[in-house]
Specification:
Layout (H helix, E strand, L loop, with lengths): L2 H13 L5 H15 L11 H7 L2 E6 L2 H19 L2 E6 L3 H9 L8 E5 H10 L19 H10 L6 E14 L5 H7 L13 E4 L2 H11 L10 H14 E5 L2 H9 L5 E5 H9 L4 E4 L5 E9 L5 H12 L1 H11 L36 H19 L3
Parallel strand pairs: 1-2, 1-3, 5-6
Antiparallel strand pairs: 3-9, 4-7, 4-8, 4-9
Helix pairs in contact: 1-2, 2-4, 4-14, 6-15, 9-10, 11-12
C-alpha cells in the first residue's frame, strides 16, 4: 500500500469517527516515521531526505497553553513524520524577541508566532522577511483571504508568513465583583473605574495601552486627534492598576488568584480560565481590539523545511487541534473547512469568514507613530 493510500484511509477513519484526533495525529506520525510521506497529501520529505537537508527548525512562540497546543498537536507529530526536530522557544513580548533576532546570527531563528500585521511590517522593514514558495504550502488555499491581504500589501504580493489564528483583546472581569450588565454599560471605562483601585491589571504593551485610552476618551484608535487626553487616560489607568502583566501566564494567574478583578485580556487565555472553572466574564467593547497571528519565516531560515512545517500546521486536522488547545480560532475559512464543535464557540470566532466586524491596528498608522509613542509610554510607565 503506498503512503498516499495509507493516509487517505487513515483520514477517512478519523472523519468517520472511528478514531479521535489525538489518535489520528499519533498514527500519522508513526506512519511517517516508518516510511515517510513523500508525494502524499502533506508533501513531506522522507526522514532520510529531511535529515540530509536539515536536522531542526526553531520555532518561537508565546509560551503557556499556546505553546503546549503547538507542541502536542503540531510539533511532535511533525517530527515523527519527518525526522526534523522542532526546537521550541518562547518569548514574553514582541519587542524583546525582535531584539534577540536582530542580535542573532543568520539562521539562528527560523519561525516566529508573531502577533499582528504591525510586527510583520516591522520585520519586513528591517530586512528580515523572506519569500515563501506557495506551491509548497497548498493548504494556504484554505486560509481566510481577509487575513492574507494585509501581509501581501506590505510585501508586494508575496508572503513571508502564513496567517494562523486570530482573537481579540477584550475586557475580562471577575463576576463576583463585576456584573455582566456593569461591564456592558462601562465598556473600556471599566479599566479606569476608581471603585476597583489596586484590583485592575493591564498588559505592559504600549499599543494596547494607547488603544484602550483612545476608547476611554471617545476617539478612534486608528485616527487619534487628542493625544494629551490619551496620555492622561493611560496615566489614570496606571495609577489605579495593581500592576501591568507581561505574559499570558501572568494574566491567568492574576485573574485566577483574584489578585485583580478587571483587566483587558486575550480572548483565548480568558476562555482557558473559564474552562478551568473560574467565573470570569469577557466582553469585546465597542471599538475593541482584534488581532491576527502569523507564522513568520525569518531571513536565513531553511526555507523548504519551514514551508513543510507551515503546510503541516495548516492541515485542517492539525490546525483545528491546535485551535482547540489554545482557544483561538484558526485562520482556516469556515466556509471551506468544517471546524468542528468547539471552534465556533470560541471568543472572537467569525462564522462568515470575513472578519468584517473586528477592529484591527492600521499598520501604517501605528508604525509611523511607534518611535514617539513607545518612548513616551516608557516614560509614563516609569511614573512620569
Amino acid at each position: 500500500m503506498d503512503e498516499s493510500t495509507r493516509y487517505e484511509r487513515l483520514l477517512a477513519r478519523y472523519r468517520d469517527g472511528d478514531i479521535d484526533r489525538r489518535t489520528f495525529l499519533k498514527m500519522l506520525g508513526l506512519a511517517g516515521m516508518a516510511a515517510g510521506l513523500a508525494g502524499g497529501p502533506f508533501g513531506l520529505l522522507t526522514p532520510r531526505e529531511a535529515k540530509a537537508a536539515v536536522e531542526q527548525v526553531r520555532f518561537d512562540g508565546w509560551g503557556g497553553v499556546v505553546s503546549e497546543a503547538f507542541r502536542e498537536y503540531a510539533f511532535k507529530p511533525y517530527t515523527r513524520a519527518t525526522g526534523i526536530e522542532v526546537v521550541d522557544g518562547t518569548f514574553g513580548g514582541a519587542d524583546e524577541y525582535l531584539a534577540r533576532v536582530r542580535a542573532s546570527q543568520p539562521g539562528e531563528f527560523n519561525i516566529a508566532h508573531l502577533s499582528g500585521v504591525f510586527d510583520y511590517a516591522r520585520y519586513d522593514g528591517l530586512g528580515l522577511s523572506t519569500t515563501l514558495d506557495e506551491d509548497n504550502i497548498p493548504n494556504l488555499k484554505l486560509v481566510i483571504e481577509t487575513l492574507q491581504k494585509p501581509f501581501r500589501r506590505i510585501t508586494d504580493g508575496r508572503l513571508s508568513a502564513v496567517p494562523y489564528d486570530y482573537g481579540t483583546t477584550g475586557i475580562a472581569y471577575n463576576r463576583k465583583y463585576v456584573s455582566d450588565e456593569e461591564a456592558r454599560d462601562k465598556g473600556a471605562k471599566l479599566l479606569i473605574d476608581e471603585r476597583f483601585k489596586d484590583k485592575i491589571g493591564g498588559w505592559s504593551e504600549w499599543k494596547t495601552r494607547i488603544w484602550y485610552a483612545a476608547l476611554q476618551t471617545g476617539q478612534d484608535p486608528n485616527d487619534i486627534e487628542d493625544m494629551d487626553a490619551v496620555w492622561d487616560a493611560v496615566r489614570r489607568h496606571r495609577d489605579l492598576a495593581l500592576k501591568y502583566w507581561s505574559s499570558g501566564a501572568e494574566l491567568m494567574s492574576l485573574l485566577g488568584e483574584e489578585e485583580i478583578y478587571v483587566t483587558e485580556g486575550w480572548s483565548g487565555r480568558i476562555r482557558a480560565l473559564q474552562d478551568q472553572g473560574h467565573d470570569i466574564g469577557y466582553l469585546d467593547p465597542p471599538g475593541g481590539l482584534a488581532w491576527q497571528e502569523c507564522l513568520f519565516v525569518i531571513k536565513g531560515s531553511p526555507m523548504a523545511a519551514c514551508e513543510e512545517l507551515l503546510n503541516f500546521m495548516l492541515e485542517p486536522e492539525v490546525a483545528i487541534a491546535v485551535a482547540e488547545g489554545q482557544n483561538y480560532p484558526p485562520a482556516l475559512n469556515p466556509k471551506k473547512v468544517d471546524l468542528g464543535e468547539k471552534v465556533p464557540t470560541l471568543p472572537a470566532f467569525d462564522p462568515s469568514g470575513t472578519l468584517a466586524s473586528l477592529n484591527f491596528f492600521d499598520p501604517a498608522y501605528w508604525n509611523d507613530h511607534e518611535g514617539q509613542w513607545s518612548k513616551t509610554f516608557g516614560r509614563v510607565q516609569r511614573g512620569y
